[in-house]
Structures are given as C-alpha cells and as structure tokens.
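quick q for whoever's on today - can somebody do inverse folding on this one?? i tried earlier but teh output was garbage lol. tokens:
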C-alpha cells in the first residue's frame, strides 16, 4: 500500500508561516506573516492524525470538515480542499486569519495533547482560500430561482453577510442596510489591517454585490426608517447589528480630553488606511503618534488598540488589565505579538482615576494594584484591591477597551414591542430564531452578546435556514389564501 501523506506529526515539527521581524512589521499595517508556500502547507497539513473523533471539528463553531480538507491539502488536491472548506463557511480565509485557533480548533487538537504541537489549522485554512481566490476557484454567488419575496438584513457584519449570502442563494431579493459607508462591520472598521487586510474583506463584499444583493450603506435604522417601515417593505427582517455600546468606566477624570473609546480609535485608524479624511485623527485626538498611551482592558480589542498605537509611533504603550496573564480573555498569541512589538503589559492593575492637566487634557492614570480572590460566577478568580500597591503612570492618550454591550434598539428604532433581555440583547425563540415580532429574526452578537466572528458566521448560517423555512411557509399560506 502506498505511503500515506498523513500522520507525520512525530517526524515533522509544527511550523507556522514565518512572522516578519517585529521592528519591521510595527512600521506598517500589513499582516504580520506571509502565507505558506505550497510544499510547506502540504507538509503541515500532513501532520494531522486523522482522528476518529475530530475534536478540532467539534470545537469549531462551524463544525468545519477540518481533517478532510487537511488530508486533501496534504495530497495536493487544493481545489478539492477549498470546495470542502467553503461548504461550511462563507468566509474561510477570514476565519483563518482572525479566529482564536488556540482556544478552538488548534487548542483541542489531539496531537497538541501528546506534546507534538497542534496542526496549524488556521494557517492552512487561510492558505487554501487565498490560493482559491488567486486561481479563480471562488465562484460567483449565483442566486437561486426567484421567489418573489424580499428580505431586509440590518447590519453588514459577519452574521448579516453570511445570512445574506445563503438567502440570496435560495432565491430571495436581499437588501442589506448598514449605518457605515462600507460593509463589513467590525471586519472593516474594528479589526486592524495587521490582522485582516481590508482587500480581503472587500472582495467578499464585492462578490455579494455582484450576486445581486443590494447594499444600502450609510443607512441608519431609526433615522432613515423605523423597524416597522422595513417590515412593510420586506417579507422578513433580520436584525444582525452586533453590539456597539462601549462599556463605561466610572472614575474621576474619565471625561477628560484624551480619554477615548476603543472603537472610535480603531475606526479612525482603519479609515485612514482606506485613505479617508478623518478630522479627529488628523488633528491628533485619535492619533497615538509621539504619545504615552495607556490601554485599559484585556480582550482582543485591547490587543488591537495596543498594536495600533505602536504602529502609529507612540512614545510608549502600556496595557492595564485587572487580572493576570493566565486569566485574561484575549488571545495569548496576540499578547505575544504585542510584546514582541514593544508593548508593556501591566497585570493586576485597574484605573481608579485619571489625572487632568492643562487644557482639561489627561496627563496620567492613577492605578490601583489588584490581587485575585475567590472565583466569580464565570469561574475565574475575581480581582480585588491589593492595599498599599497603588501608583501612577504617565498618559497623553487613554483608550478604554472594556468590551461592548447592546444598544437600546427598541428605543432607537421606535419599536417598543421588540423583546430584549435585561442586557439589551434581542430575545429570540430557540427553534425559529424569531424575535417577539412576526417575521423579524435576529442573529449574531445582538443575540448572544459580544462574541467571536466565527460564531457570528455560524449564527448567520443558522438564521438563514430558519428564515428560509418560515418564508416558504408564508408563501404557501398566501397562495392557499388566494
């Protein structure tokens, strides 16, 4: 029997695509690693142990057929690998770039447990689809036979775009409404280019537009139309807005000039990358150049802010987090990348106030030293004040990256009957994924709270199936009534 290209994890070491030198990559917003050459990708895919129960797939929210497309890659059948990868994900090359694989597929790889190092699943996934784009294997979005029904999707982030693609493929007229002037949501304006270069997002959006999906950009529900207006225009509505309300800090001086929200800061940076005029950046408010920057938070958004400030030429960058490294929510890989690039992490530290200097501008942060106490409801040890350890750090720019909550959609949209939880997230039926309003569905972070892009894509796929079922029943009922 011919030698299999698989099961090579014992005699073949783990190898990720080489990262560019830290001092060089910190000078631009290009992605930090190049992709594999073909032989290297095939070799790394061949390390897969082809488990009978593939924990990588089980722990992937999309349940991608990971061992199967790794085998196809190892065999040199890249087009087949792409087709299989694409069958379960609308954005595999994006997930390959920004998923926290160390917490999902790779973190649950069986050979990782044996000490041989996980298969580099994300890097291979990125390689497969980037190759598919270059080779012309990514086919146009072809709409199904026209059904004579239309759907409104509110929000052009990953959940909305994923649902829109599936619904268009089923023959519906799909209209996507988004408040920004470009589609993509946080993929476009929240995630920096060094993790996700913007042409990668725009080519996905362009493919959807070419497939007949109509985008209404710069359209804000509540300002340009009420939710009820959209219900009257369309047969069904999907709420996929994500969560954008920044969590607040209650501390003296928090309103000082130079204390800014993470999303405002990241959006300004990404807009400059597109070549837009950004007054708040150009006048220096949202530009870290030459400043002593303090980022508050320990999630991936905080990591994005830290690494953006370095690229903007900050004089120093510190990240304050109230727990320790082991208990932070962000990716350990991102922390390592930031440290390589010159960021300083100050663990077990929380702001207790902001010093205000001349012109009502922030000049420093009063920091409270923390320690870990008993576990809280999440299972993590709760931070508590460590007496006697307080200190101060210099700061010209403070970026608050404490996470996001849902906006008050019933109020903003003039829809008081829209059911929401006490956290403001939209309530849906567990089976139908419909909200309290007939024909109005919801998916993504606006339902589950701030989460991962891969979960938003999964939710978009699921809700598209639920909407398809409901719309078919609606059409059948209308035909019968006629």
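ok took a stab at it. sequence:
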């Amino acid at each position: 029997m011919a030698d299999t290209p698989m099961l090579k994890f014992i005699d073949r070491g783990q190898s990720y695509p080489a990262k560019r030198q830290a001092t060089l990559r910190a000078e631009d917003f290009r992605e930090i690693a190049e992709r594999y050459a073909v032989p290297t990708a095939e070799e790394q895919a061949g390390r897969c142990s082809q488990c009978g129960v593939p924990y990588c797939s089980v722990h992937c929210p999309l349940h991608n057929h990971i061992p199967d497309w790794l085998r196809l890659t190892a065999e040199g059948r890249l087009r087949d690998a792409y087709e299989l990868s694409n069958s379960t994900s609308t954005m595999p090359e994006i997930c390959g770039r920004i998923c926290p694989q160390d917490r999902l597929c790779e973190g649950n790889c069986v050979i990782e447990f044996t000490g041989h190092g996980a298969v580099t699943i994300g890097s291979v996934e990125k390689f497969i689809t980037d190759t598919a784009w270059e080779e012309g294997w990514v086919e146009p979005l072809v709409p199904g036979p026209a059904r004579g029904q239309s759907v409104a999707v509110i929000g052009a982030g990953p959940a909305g775009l994923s649902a829109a693609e599936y619904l268009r493929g089923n023959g519906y007229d799909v209209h996507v409404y988004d408040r920004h002037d470009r589609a993509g949501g946080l993929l476009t304006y929240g995630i920096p280019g060094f993790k996700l270069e913007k042409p990668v997002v725009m080519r996905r959006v362009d493919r959807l537009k070419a497939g007949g999906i109509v985008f209404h950009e710069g359209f804000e529900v509540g300002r340009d139309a009420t939710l009820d207006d959209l219900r009257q225009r369309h047969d069904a509505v999907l709420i996929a807005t994500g969560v954008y309300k920044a969590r607040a800090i209650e501390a003296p001086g928090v309103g000082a000039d130079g204390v800014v929200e993470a999303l405002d800061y990241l959006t300004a940076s990404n807009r400059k990358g597109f070549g837009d005029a950004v007054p708040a950046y150009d006048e220096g408010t949202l530009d870290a150049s030459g400043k002593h920057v303090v980022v508050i938070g320990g999630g991936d958004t905080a990591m994005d802010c830290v690494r953006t400030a370095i690229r903007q030429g900050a004089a120093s960058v510190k990240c304050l987090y109230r727990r320790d490294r082991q208990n932070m929510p962000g990716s350990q890989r991102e922390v390592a990348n930031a440290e390589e690039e010159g960021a300083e992490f100050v663990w077990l530290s929380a702001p207790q106030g902001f010093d205000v200097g001349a012109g009502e501008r922030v000049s420093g942060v009063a920091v409270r030293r923390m320690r870990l106490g008993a576990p809280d409801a999440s299972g993590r040890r709760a931070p508590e004040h460590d007496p006697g350890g307080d200190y101060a750090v210099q700061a010209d720019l403070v970026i608050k990256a404490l996470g996001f909550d849902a906006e008050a959609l019933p109020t903003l949209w003039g829809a008081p009957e829209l059911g929401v939880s006490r956290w403001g997230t939209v309530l849906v039926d567990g089976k139908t994924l419909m909200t309290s309003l007939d024909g109005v569905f919801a998916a993504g972070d606006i339902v589950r709270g701030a989460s991962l892009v891969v979960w938003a894509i999964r939710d978009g796929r699921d809700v598209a199936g639920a909407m398809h079922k409901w719309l078919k029943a609606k059409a059948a009922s209308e035909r019968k009534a006629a």
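fwiw The chain has three domains: 22-135, 150-244+405-481, 254-402. also The radius of gyration is 24 Å. so keep that in mind when u check it
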